[in-house]
Amino acid sequence: MSTTPFDPYRPVAHLRPPRNWINDPNGLVFHDGHYHVCYQYNPYGNQHANMHWGHFRSLDLLSWEPLPIALSPTAGGEDADGCFSGNAVSDGDRMVAFYSAYREDRWSQPVTTAESHDGGRTFRPRGDLLIPRPPDGCTMYRDPYVWQDGARWRMLVGAALADGRGAALLYESPDLENWTYRGPFCAREPQDVTGTRARTGKGWECPQYLPADGGRGALIISAWNDHDGPQCVTALVGEVRDDSFEAGPPMLLDHGPDCYAPALLRAPGGRWLLWGWSWEARDDAWAAAAGWAGVLTLPREITLTDDGTLHQQPAAELRTLRGEHAVHATGTAHGPEPVDLGGVGRAFDLTARLEPTGQAGLRLLTSADGSEYLDIRLDPVAGELIVDRDRASLDARARGGAYRMPCPGGEPVDLRVVVDHSIAEIFLSTTGQALTLRCYPTGDGPWRLQARSAPGARLGYAVDAWELLPLVIKEPSADAAEPEGRSA
Ligand code: FRU
Predict the structure, then answer these.
(1) Which of 42, 112, 206 to mutate to test the pocket of ligand 1 (most atoms within 8 A of CB)?
(2) pTM for the full model?
C-alpha cells in the first residue's frame, strides 16, 4: 500500500487500511481458500459516517490482499446512508453477505444481502430488503449473523425490546432466501456481568453464535445503551433447546476497555477465529489529526471448553511474526530495586511465566527517566491481574485507568502479551482470558522491560520477547482503488 509517514501509534501487525475510520469486523468467512475480513469503513474521512465494507483477504492470516470495497451505500436505496454490520457465508461458489441497511429516516436497520460469484472481488446488492420489518416490540434492530446448522441456515439479529430487554432474535431458512421468524433466541434485562461492574446493556449489537458439541454453544453480544452507546462485550454459555438458548450468567469476553463488536469466523478444521474492533482511546482531535482511527484486534482462536468458559489465544500462525529474540531472562525480583530484563521495540510478542509471592509484575518503560510506563501487575491475594495505563502516556489526551481480570493466586501464571505501537493485547494463558487496551506513549527513546515486586514480595520470572514483524499488505490491484472526491 502507499507509503505513509512514520506514525509511532500505527500498529504494524494488526489489520486496518492505510487511512480513515474503521469500526466493526464484518463479513468474516473462509471462502474460495481465503480468509475474508471486511470491516466498517468510511473511505472519505476519519469519523463514523458513510459506512462501507472495506475488504481484505488472506491465505494464511499473515499476508493480506486489499480487495475492492465490498459494499457501498446505494444513493436513494434501502442502504442509502450506510451498509452497517453483518456477516457472510460461503455457499458453493457464492459468498453471501448479510448486512444492516441504514437510512437516517428509519429507526431500524433491516437485513439485506449482497452476493459475490468471483471470490469476493465484486458484490451484487439485492437492492430490496431481505427482512423488511423487525418483529413487533423492538426499539433497536440490526446486525445479522448467519450460520449453517445441519440442513438449515439460522440467523440472529441484534435487538432492544420495548419491555427493556436486550435480545438476539432467531430466524431460520432452508435456502438463505426465505426466512421465518422463530422468536427471541435469548433476551434478558440488563444484568451485572459476574465479578465486574459491567452490565449487559439494553440493546445487543452484533450477536455472534459459536456452536459446540451436543447442542452447547456460546452467544457473544456487544452490550449497548441508547444514551451512552457501546459498553462491553459479554458471552453467554448454554444450550439450545428447540429455538431458544438457555444460558448461565454473562461473562466478559474481553476484560479491557477497548475491544468491541467482535465477530467470528469458522475456519477449516472446525477452528473458530475471532476479531474485534479496538477503538481509539485518545481525544477526537488527536485521532482526527492522525488521519486514521480504529484497528482490528489480532485474530484469536476461541474455544468453548468443557468447563463452560471461552478460551482465547492469538491464532497459531502469528508465531511466524516473531523476529529477533530480544529478551530472554529468568530470575527472581525482590524489592526495592526492579530488575531490568532488556530492551524491546515498539512492537513485540512476549511470553512470561510469573510466580509472585505478593504483588508483583512486569513494567514496560517507555521513557528513559522512568516516568512513563504500562504496568501489568499480579495480585495473588485478590486473585487478579491488573493492567494499569494511568502512566502509559504523559499526554493528557490519552485515556488512563486500571483494568482487572481474574487470575488465580497460588500457582504460576502464564502470560502472552502482544504490544503493537498503540495496542496491547494481554492473554492469560492459564485461564484463556483476554484484555485489550490502547495506549499512546510519548517517549521517543527505546522501550525497556522490568520485573518488579512490592516490598516484602518476590517474583520468580521467565520472560521471552521477540520483535513483532509487520503483516505483509499486498499492493491493491487496480480495481481496488479507493473512491475519491467526496467530503466526509
Ligand atoms: C457496532 C455498530 C453496529 C452497527 C455498526 C455501524 O459498533 O454500532 O451495531 O451495525 O456499528 O457502524
Answers:
(1) 206
(2) 0.97
